[in-house]
Each structure stands twice: as structure tokens, then as C-alpha cells.
């Protein structure tokens, strides 16, 4: 008895449980060539070979049934037949053929891997280089001439920062603070250099702020190692960055926004205290910010996809700056000539 595709579609709509999507994708990609090499294999035997339960394998087969090439017509989807407890792939939708990269895809992979290899502090650099060599060898002339990627100034700057930490020397730095859109001169006592979410930071005691601060390496415009030793006070404590650099605390300003569909992405990139669906496509989002100056620039950058609800001073600051921007685009009216007597 051969099963029908419609039954597979209905079954595939059922929840797949709590398995991680990445794990399931790996199983599905392995499942097709495995079944192609063993037509008519018993499901129990296949489950044992693949290290899954029979129920899990059947659910994977039901999902596999509605996978295939774009177009998703009857001739594009993976098809299979069941004969009792045996399964056979009857159409593989081309998944047995090697992946062919377009020139743009090959170049994007090469650039991404080279950037990854150049990231300071990156572990398993040898594995990245091996993967890069394989892709470049397979792509051949697709990527054109050799691609060189350098993260601007990072490697040299990080060497200087690490040297200052090792030598226990104070630094004078010129630093750009994005939250306030300003550049300042500071003298700092370096504590360590660390990587968080792919970015390099100098953690140091800032004599100007009289506190431990994290300085993004790519925002240090200039630095000079001083002759004096670094002398961070005993109360200087390292930050816990396991959850990221920014850690919202109750004393920080709380901003409430109403965002449309185009602005929902902020809930995935910024820590939010509350996300509440509203009428239609709008969400109400509450988030802590370092200061309201940063929040004003952030909100203005989102354009019409956001409305500020609170605090009142942020509402007024955004309104005033938006009005000033509109005034700058206003067309001056020609002067009315005075009547002649």
C-alpha cells in the first residue's frame, strides 16, 4: 500500500515537540541520502541505525514529505512510498546532487569566513581556515581574484591594549561615546581585554568617571601608553558579561514605546522589560536605556514605526527634534510686495 501525499501534509502540520530546529535539520539532511541508499528499509531498522525512536523517525518522514525545491508543486517536493513498515524515497527533489554555489554566494561565504578568521580572540581559527580553503578550492574562479578582509585597525589596536594590560601601564585614550554622540579624552587603568558577542572591549578603571568602564576597541580613536603604572583602586570590580555588556538596572530610565510591525525587531536586539501585543500590528515595548539622549537618537532612527509613550521628557525631545527637521525642509514663502502709493 502506497501512502498519499495529502496524508503526509496533514501529519506534518502536527507539532514536532521541543526538539531543537538545528538538530532536526541535521537529521533531515542526513535522512535523504541514507534512505536513497537503502530502498525499502524497515522503519525500525532505520530508526536504530540513526539513533532515534520509531515515532521520531515517522515524524521526520512526515515533515520531509512536504520539503523540496521552490515552486512546491507535485514535481518539486520530496516523495516517498510506504509498504507496511518499509519506506522508499521515490523522488529526491535533487537533494542527492552536490550543492552548486552562485558567484555571489561563494563570494559572500569567503568574505564572511575571512572576517571571522580576522576577529581578534576567535577560537578554532584553524577550523575556520580549513573550511575557507575547502570553499575557495571548490569555488575556483567563481570568486574572482583573491579576497583580503581586514577589520580596520582592530588587530594593531588590540595588540597595544593587551600590551598595556600585561605591562600594567596607564593609558590616555580618545574615546567616542555613541550613547551621547561625543568624543572625550580619558586616562584609564587597564584591567583586561575581552571579547563579547564578537566585539573586543577594554575593561579599565576610568579616572574621569571614577568607576570601572567597558570601552569598545573600535571606538577608541587614539591611545597613548603612559610611563606611569596602572593603579586601579581596590574597589574596582570586573563586570559580569555572561549575559552581555548592557545589563538593565532599576535606576536606569524606563522608556515605553508603541512600535509597528517594522519596528518589532528591536525586541530581539535589545533587552526589554515588557513586550505587550496591542491592537492590530502594534506592540507596546518597555525597555531600560543608558540615558535619554541615546533614546532620543534611537527613536528618531526608527522613523514612523515607533511612537514614544513615556517618559514625558523623551516625548517632548523627540517632538521638538522632529519639528525642527520638518522646518528645515519647509519652503520659504515669497515676501508680499508692499503696495505703492
Automatic annotation (TrEMBL):
At the highest ranks, the source species' classification is:
Bacteria, Bacillati, Actinomycetota, Actinomycetes, Micromonosporales
Specify the protein name.
Answer: Proteasome accessory factor C
A GO CC term attached to the entry: proteasome complex
Q: Does the keyword Plastid apply?
A: no
Task: Indicate the segments forming the WYL domain, all copies.
Answer: 158-224
**Alphabetic keyword roster:** Proteasome
Q: Source organism's superkingdom?
A: Bacteria
Pfam families, per this entry?
HTH_PafC, WCX, WYL
Q: Which organism is it from?
A: Micromonospora pattaloongensis
For the WCX domain, which residue ranges apply?
Answer: 254-326
- PafC HTH domain residues: 23-136
